[in-house]
Design a protein that fits this description.
alpha+beta; Jelly Rolls; 3 domains; ten-stranded mixed sheet; 11 helices
């Protein structure tokens, strides 16, 4: 599902930086049995951080990090203490937006073309927008950067986002990529499809715009998706936040590590200091945000949800959970989940039921009395009966986790959670049953005791559950190529970035020689101009551009160039594989991006 005509427009605001710390105040909450009619359409703020692990909060016992705002939120919220996400970011985000397993949405990876969500999916923003909400996203989208996959095409009235999967990555805007170790400062972002130059640190910029969004829509019901790209690498942060942790004694970092051993290399300690500084910056920004809710007197009509997208990317304190980002062990997929709605949801209350990212959309739909679409059946279930204390016997269900580079494989980094049991597979499709691990998470939350030898029947049963899920999910039609549309009225020119390039060489996506291709649709016959930009300056050579069977080559005689242009290429409407490369001496070089524009010449 996608839309192209936002209900409102906002002024292009000049980003500003405001620094102050105010303690957040949450009023005492009581549990209600149903959503009162007068607040059937609460404001909804969904906050997600990037690569912040379960242990990257003071609330969960981290002896170093200072997160007073998030700790206060945790104490005054209902906490989903067994809340799960995907092992990596784009799959988690597609499940958040749709209430479905990421593989069903067409998202199967973080790059190599695997982070483009099908436009047939219906997002939270589309559901809420159809019900009169004003919708906004600020920060990381990571589900497609070109029409028709952008957040502005997927139901968001206001969108301020970076490109690709992270600021400064090869899939982000070139202006950020070339800045290297300062890309998080004054980043180039896209506001409602238009590139703008912002001022300030990225997390501050997102929060500034989010606050302005709230202020401008205080009299409307709004959905705010505040999606920080911190503390994802590169670990760039304002100096004042690094200084908070610079001189913390080494021994304080040795309390717990992801593999359960009390030793860390100096490299990991230095990384943890930078991560903690980035999280403290987010904490201060959330203090500003929550104080705006208080000053506008809309706390009681606002549901705030806080989660993170996967486990920590580095080796640091994780409250004893095993492993980290990318893994299906608990440390890779179990994250904080705090729900605050003063007067409607209990404060300082734990729900120890297995829940997941796929449950957020159906929960919001029930709260807002919106019926889900029958076109794409939901995998998640509404948690409202749990949140309002109505259903203490929430039925168990099976949850599936997986991730490798590319499409999922049996039984490579897969897990099945069923009741208290969790099956983990880290082999190939040919592995015998005795290579699986089995854990009783209720009695062994840190996955220290493999009981697979005691329960062969359970191994077979859970393996069968994965097999059934896999054969259904892998034949899902949304896994067909999600084609970037070129030459449409909605986006011209189109920039094809490295995040969406496909092919085996692109797994090494930082390499200048990572040759790949894009799946595209030419929207209409016409003449097109093409510019290819490369990672570094190259000497005299030959540039080749190919769309389907249409191929054009141009010789470059310059001694040093990083961009080659080709003009007036006649392309016909249709679906194609698009490629481009540059031959310099005997080596082929891949573009970091290709810009293609319909020039409307006859």
């Amino acid at each position: 599902m996608f839309t192209n005509h936002p209900k409102i427009k906002i002024n292009l605001i000049a980003p500003f930086m405001v620094f102050f710390n105010v303690s957040i105040l949450f009023t005492a909450c009581t549990s209600e049995k149903e959503v009162p009619k007068e607040i059937m359409n609460p404001n909804i703020i969904l906050i997600i951080t990037d690569d912040q692990g379960y242990g990257d909060l003071g609330f969960f016992g981290n002896p170093v990090i200072k997160t007073p705002t998030l700790d206060s939120l945790a104490r005054n919220s209902t906490r989903l203490s067994q809340f799960y996400v995907s092992p990596v970011c784009a799959p988690t985000r597609s499940s958040l937006m749709t209430g479905r397993y990421s593989i069903r949405t067409g998202v199967y990876d973080t790059y190599n073309g695997g982070a483009i969500m099908s436009t047939d999916e219906k997002t939270i923003a589309e559901y809420l927008g159809e019900s009169g909400y004003i919708t906004g996203i600020f920060g990381k989208w990571h589900l497609g950067d070109t029409y028709p996959f952008r957040p502005m095409d997927q139901g968001f009235d206001v969108s301020l986002v970076h490109g690709g999967g992270g600021i400064g990555q090869p899939g982000d805007f070139y202006e950020n990529y070339i800045k290297g170790d300062s890309s998080y400062f004054n980043p180039t972002l896209r506001l409602n499809g238009i590139k703008i130059q912002t001022r300030g640190y990225c997390s501050d910029v997102y929060t500034d715009h989010a606050i302005r969004f709230i202020e401008e829509n205080v009299d409307n019901s709004f959905f705010l998706y505040l999606s920080y790209n911190a503390p994802h690498t590169p670990l760039q942060l304002p100096e004042e936040y690094y200084e908070r942790y610079k001189n913390v004694p080494k021994e304080l970092f040795l309390t717990d590590t992801l593999d359960g051993r009390n030793m860390l290399q100096d490299y990991w300690i230095e990384e943890a200091k930078r991560v903690y500084g980035m999280v403290s910056n987010i904490d201060d920004n959330l203090s500003r945000l929550f104080n705006i809710l208080h000053s506008l007197k809309i706390e009681n009509k606002t549901l705030v949800i806080f989660i993170t997208d996967n486990g920590p990317q580095g080796n640091r304190y994780n409250a004893g959970l095993r492993s980290r980002k990318g893994s299906v062990y608990e440390g890779g997929i179990r994250v904080p989940s705090f729900w605050s709605w003063p007067g409607q949801i209990n404060q300082d209350f734990d729900i120890n039921v297995v829940t997941a990212h796929i449950d957020i959309l159906p929960t919001i739909l029930e709260i807002c009395d919106i019926k889900p679409s029958s076109q794409n059946p939901l995998d998640g279930r509404s948690l409202w009966p749990l949140l309002n204390g109505e259903d203490e016997d929430f039925p168990d269900r099976d949850l599936i986790f997986h991730w490798i580079r590319g499409f999922p494989e049996p039984y490579h980094n897969i897990a099945v959670r069923s009741g208290n049991y969790k099956l983990v597979g880290n082999g190939s499709y040919l592995v015998p049953d005795n290579t699986f691990e089995l854990f009783d998470i209720k009695s062994d939350p840190y996955e220290l005791n493999d009981i697979s030898g005691e329960s062969p029947d359970m191994i077979n049963a859970l393996k069968g559950k994965f097999d059934d899920w896999y054969h259904d999910a892998i034949n899902n039609e949304h896994l067909k190529p999600q084609r970037i549309i070129i030459g449409s009225e909605y986006e011209n020119p189109v920039i094809l970035n490295r995040n969406d390039t496909k092919g085996p060489m692109v797994k090494n996506w930082m390499s200048p020689t990572a040759i790949g291709y894009w799946d595209v649709s030419i929207a209409s016959d016409g003449f097109y101009d093409v510019s290819m930009r490369f990672f570094r300056r190259l000497g005299p050579g030959m540039a080749t551009f190919r769309v389907g069977t249409v191929q054009r080559t141009v010789r470059n005689l310059s001694d040093s160039t990083d961009m080659v242009s080709l003009h007036n290429i006649n392309l016909l409407k249709g679906d194609y594989m698009l490629e481009g490369w540059y031959q310099y001496n005997s080596e082929l070089y891949a573009p970091i991006y290709i810009e293609i524009a319909k020039n409307n010449k006859l």
